[in-house]
Structures are given as structure tokens and as C-alpha cells.
Amino acid sequence: MSDLLTPATAADLAATAAGVRIRIVTELAELHEIFWLFDSIWHSAPAHAPVSRELLRAMSKAGNYVAGAFDETGLVGACAAFFAAPDRHEIHSHIAGVARAARGRNVGWALKLHQRAWALDHGMSRISWTYDPLVSRNAYFNLVKLGGAPVQYLPDFYGPMGDAINGDDATDRLLLQWDLTAPRVDQVARGERPQRWDAEMLRAAGAVTALGRTPSGEPVPGEADGRIVLVAVPPDIEALRRTDPAGARRWRVAVREALGPLIDGGARVTGFDRAGWYVVERTDA
After folding, report:
1. In the chain, where the domains are located
2. How many of the other CB atoms lie within 10 Å of CB of 67?
């Protein structure tokens, strides 16, 4: 794509490629559709719904970001974000989801590019959000495909949620910051291939393993005394929660104990190997 491609044009091209139209949603009926879309994804108990129709209505009325992705069948994806403190020039993206029938079409990618263009048009330079560090596909999407950077490890951030995705697991999260004007972010938004990370090659070049995994999929603590540190996550934590909840909890604790102190100590998460490895750089090593 051209270097002159604007964020809005990049977002439009991504939406066209995904087969959707993305627009800001303000009408109550469509906000109700967004609520039910999120409910169909998370299957939350009423007391733990990630967002209510009334809150979406209030956010929209106050000028925050509430957007939907629509195809010929109707609403297939949505995202909601609110403004942070004025001096931060940032919006916080609270929730985003894509209907199961529309997955695999890059609808989520198109939504994030639309959100980026909207935020820049409203004078914002950054978007933040949280995600579960154990969900490998989200880590790849956030760190590699979007070019975001985790800045804080948040143990049990939301407390018990008890939905179909989180189960009874502790809700540890990584706080991610997406610098909307960073060269890497601009490059991937314009369609350039993102950087590829290979844990085996990094290990051969001297990277150390702070958390590995056995052939049977169990976490194995290691050492974090190198400049480049690798931290493993399970291939599919959501399936593991269904089949082996105790094993999922062991992974939660292991990643918290390996990744949390690294980030809290000033290390930077610089990439993610799609095979399930965080790549962390220690500036003090």
C-alpha cells in the first residue's frame, strides 16, 4: 500500500476486505443488538455482563466510541471505548467481539483500524486495552498484527467473571498500549507484513527461557537472567479450562510469576511467537 494511505482509507480497505461496513452506532435498537452480540460471545451471568445496553447508550451519548461491523446478515462485530483522562490523549477500548459466524474474515482487524482512524480524528494518539495473557491468538493479534506494547501486568484485574470464556479462572490481564502514530503501527495498518518472531532461533542466539512447557503441556519455570527472555503460554487456554481446569490454573500462576515480575521490573515485551512464546527484552541485563 502507498505511504500516503490515510488511517481512514486504510480502515475502509480493511472493512471492504472483511466484507463489512463499520460505522458509529447511536440508536437504541442497534445498541441493544451490540449488547446481545457480546452476550452471545461471553455468555455472562447477569451480574457479570461485560457491558449493559444502558451503559452503551450513555457512552454513545457522551461522545465515546461505540461502533458496529455489519454485513448482509446484520451486525457481526462491535467495539466500545471511552476517553481516558484528558492529559493522556487516549481512549480505553473496553470490549470488542466478533460473531462466531464471521470469524476468520479479519473483522476484528477492520474494527481496530476503524477505531484507530476515529481516535486520531478526535485528537487521540493512543488506545489502551486489557487482554488475557494466556490467550495465544489474542497475544499474537495485539502484539504482532497490531503492533501494541504491554506495559503492566494486572493480577485478577476484574475479579471473578464466571462466563463461558474465563470460567472460574482468575482474571489476570496485560494492559496494552497502542501508539497510533508509531512507525511500526503505521506500517502494519498500511498492510505491510509484520515482523516474525521465532523462539527457537532466539534461543539458539542466546535467549533464556523463564517459562517453558513439557511435551505434555505443563508449565516449567526456568531462569530469567538473560537479555532476551522467553515466556511460554498454552496453545489453547480456553480448551484447557474446559478439559483440565486445574491445569489452566497452574498456567495462570506460572505465567503470572514469570511475566509479571519482568514487566514490573521494567522489561519490555517486544514480540510474540505464534507458537506460544512471549519475547521479552530486559534493559537491565
Report:
1. 7-189, 199-281
2. 20
pTM: 0.92
Summarised one tens digit per residue, pLDDT across range 163-190 is: 656 667 889 999 999 999 999 999 999 9
Residue among 33, 32, 38 nearest 164 (CA): 38
Whole-number pLDDT of residue 203: 96
Amino acid at 264: D
Note the pLDDT of residue 119: 98
Q: Does domain 7-189 have CATH number 3.40.630.30?
A: yes
CB 31 within 8 A of CB 56: yes
The whole-angstrom separation of Cα 14 and Cα 55 is 28
CA distance 237 to 171: 13
Rounded Cα distance between 267 and 284, Å, is: 8
Strand segments, DSSP code E, in 7-88 are 21-24, 65-71, 74-83
Query: How far is Cα 174 from Cα 154, in angstroms, rounded to an integer?
Result: 6
Cell 480524528 belongs to which residue? 121
Residue 253 DSSP one-character state: H
How far separated are the first and last CA of the chain, in Å rounded? 39
Between strands 126-131 and 90-98, the pairing is parallel
Q: Which residues of the chain are modeled with pLDDT < 50?
A: 1-2
Query: Burial letters for 143-164: b for 16+ Cβ neighbours within 10 Å, e otherwise?
Result: bbebbbbbeebeeeeeeebebe
- Strand-pairing partners, residue 75, are 70
**Cα 261–chain centre separation:** 21
